[in-house]
Design brief:
The structure is a single chain. The chain has a seven-stranded antiparallel β-sheet, with no helix packed on it. It has helices at 11-14, 208-213; strands spanning 3-5, 17-19, 34-36, 61-63, 76-82, 91-96, 101-105, 115-116, 129-131, 140-142, 144-145, 152-154, 162-168, 171-175, 181-185, 189-192, 268-270. By secondary structure, it is mainly beta. The chain has two domains: 3-201, OB fold (Dihydrolipoamide Acetyltransferase, E2P) (Beta Barrel), CATH 2.40.50.140; 220-274, Ribosomal protein L2, domain 3 (Irregular). It has two helices and 17 strands.
Length: 274
């Protein structure tokens, strides 16, 4: 896994940095684990645009990912590591001893032929999924459940990981990717290791067209709009636009939007770093 730099033969290649895809071992997905998806173009069921700057893009098929890892006690073998157009991480195809196939989020460093397992009896090795009560303290983990049996909800994107720092009664204390320290029930599952493709945040598209392939349309600056279109619009000449805020008037920097009475507040020991 790494980045590929291009010779500056064209202006778009001058700064382009893309993944080298060295870890990819298959170019076609497993047919039984693929389903079609339809693009919304940012429109709702009545055809009204509710999210701007979305549209176009290359066709995608959705890969069904096993976030629950509930096939406990049965050993599986990694057969391929594949690209997934729906997420920043790579995915791995697991074939279990009983013949069932499932996709999982590929951990960083996983290899074809490697054995993975989940549930009781699984060792704390890369790709194995354990209850937080069985994970050794200080271990790097990803694909963490928030509620037992819910399926992985935290640390799923490229390069993400959390660290199990302590256990206190029925709770495990985790340091999250954002820097937040919070408690999660020890009956929740997590996968050992960090998520694959850690260089994803270093990639540079190089040209607007590559963003169009991803389904992202041009985004114009609020200060260049009229007052009717945005609170930061209008003014004579190159006006600053005033305080940064959203189209609906919510301030962008430092304004707290989290509910004060949110139920999960009691599980957060330390807030994320600003």
């Amino acid at each position: 896994m790494g980045l590929k730099k291009y010779r500056p033969l064209t202006p778009s290649l001058r700064y382009k940095l893309s993944a080298d895809f060295a870890e990819i071992t298959a170019d076609k997905p497993e047919k039984s684990l693929v389903k079609p998806t339809k693009r919304s173009g940012g429109r709702n069921d009545t055809g009204k645009m509710t999210i701007r700057y979305i549209g176009g893009g290359h066709k995608k098929a959705y890969r069904l990912i096993d976030f629950k890892r509930d096939k406990d006690g049965i050993e599986g073998t990694v057969t391929t590591v594949e690209y997934d157009p729906n997420r920043s991480a790579r995915i791995a195809l697991i074939v279990y001893k009983d013949g069932e196939k499932r996709y999982i989020i590929a951990p960083h460093g996983i290899q074809v032929g490697q054995k993975v397992m989940s549930g009781k009896g699984a060792g704390p090795e890369i790709g194995n999924t354990l209850l937080l009560s069985e994970v050794p303290l200080g271990t790097i983990i990803h694909n963490i459940e928030l509620r037992p049996g819910q399926g992985a909800a935290l640390a799923r994107s490229a390069g993400a990981y959390a660290q199990l720092s302590a256990r206190d009664g029925k709770y495990a204390i985790l340091k999250m990717p954002s820097g937040e320290v919070r408690m999660i029930l020890i009956t929740c599952k997590a996968t050992i290791g960090s998520v694959s493709n850690p260089d994803h945040n270093q990639e540079v598209h190089g040209k607007a067209g590559r963003r169009r392939w991803l389904g992202r349309r041009p985004r114009n600056r609020p200060v260049a709009m009229n007052p009717v279109d945005h609170p930061m619009g209008g003014g004579e000449g190159r006006a600053s636009g005033g305080h940064p805020r959203s189209r609906k008037g919510i301030p962008a920097k430092g304004f707290k939007t989290r509910y004060k009475s949110k139920a999960s507040n009691k599980h957060i020991i330390e807030r994320r770093k600003k």
